[in-house]
Please model this.
Amino acid sequence: MSWGKFCLSALAIFWKIATSCDSGMSSGMQWLVSGFSWAQDMRDPVCSTPLIAPMELVEREQALAALISGLASAADGEGRVALLAGEAGIGKSALASRFAAAHRDTADVLWGACDALFTPRPLGPLRDIALHMQGALLTALEADRDRHHLFSLFLRGLRERKRPAIVIFEDVHWADEATLDLIKFLGRRIAAVRALVILTYRDDELDPRHPLRSVLGDLPPETTLRIPLQPLSEQSVMSLARNAGRTNEAARLHAATGGNPFYVTEVLANEGAGVPATVRDAVLARAARLSPSARETLDVASLSPGGIEPWIVEACTGCGAAGLDECVSRGMLRLVRGNYVFRHELARLAVLDALSPLRRRELHRAVLQPLRSRPTSPEMLARLAHHAEAADDHEAILEYAPAAGHHAASMGAHREAVAHFAGALR
Ligand SMILES: Nc1ncnc2c1ncn2[C@@H]1O[C@H](COP(=O)(O)OP(=O)(O)OP(=O)(O)O)[C@@H](O)[C@H]1O
Ligand SMILES: [Mg+2]
Model:
């Protein structure tokens, strides 16, 4: 978890504790809540956004302009639904937060989130908002009133506000069924409401049958703003690296992270070499949600830096296409010219690092077998030597490492040639 995410969670938990205490809040708690300026902000009845210090965001001018135009329409009485989409760590929350912080003097900000629970809370985001607003909506939620009543109350609350509202539903790829219904309900009525509803979601985690797809597809196009977020360019990564005093790492950093801002900022915030713990945790949390066969597929794929062929995965795991398809639809792997590669090199390293030495050796052996069963081309020698060494298979090392060394030397890659010969001698 990044420091920013940790702070968000801590603030949200603290706020929930504080508000759940309500009149029974201890004097110590009251002092705590009133003593900090951020806590006062959290009690502000028109802003439930977890506050984080607005950070400088690079390459997000267009996305911010789209949100600003959506809010302008909302202020004129024609609401909008903005779809803020992109892979994990691309900066959806940072952008929504930044935008909300910039406009909270002129608009009411209502923030709620879906959680990655195995069984999501029904109407999680609406509950977050109601907890903050208190009043009729919270009472109705606590009394388990039917959905239509709750949705109507919420809509009425939006219509009766003096100022336009910015409503943020975070991470709707994890939305429960009732929240999806709420999105449909709002989407159909937003044209006559002074509100900008921002939905953030990971678009690379929506497989074709994901229920959010049809909900979003049915939103009226004339009131829907689609704002896909792209990875940062090499130039922006360079400028972030320069600010961190690590200019010479910029090109490598861009290659390893694919311009994903979460990975970029975490690596830059981390003094040591290797995969930062925050990145590792985020990647492994996503991997943990895969089915066992997809997880095994991912483990096997992590052994091959240049990507892996489906027939090798099939031979090693017996999982076949289903495991690979799941890894692709959950945004972990992508298909490039017939090979499956990790979307980000850092994610591959995080998965690889998580394998125990024994398991890693076992999997390298499993990969080596089908690779050896096919005719060897000179280009394959380095790869065979790599798996042979990691599998600690002496016979295979002696067969492939010197041959790979000679091939590298013939291509003028002398440093690689030396490494292969050294491998054969070990
Ligand atoms: N445009 C940007 N410029 C600089 N840093 C950024 C930018 N966008 C995001 N970041 C950094 O990346 C981190 C991750 O961003 P954020 O949490 O918003 O991603 P996300 O898309 O919401 O991810 P998730 O899907 O996991 O919720 C932020 O804490 C911030 O440090
Ligand atoms: Mg987020």
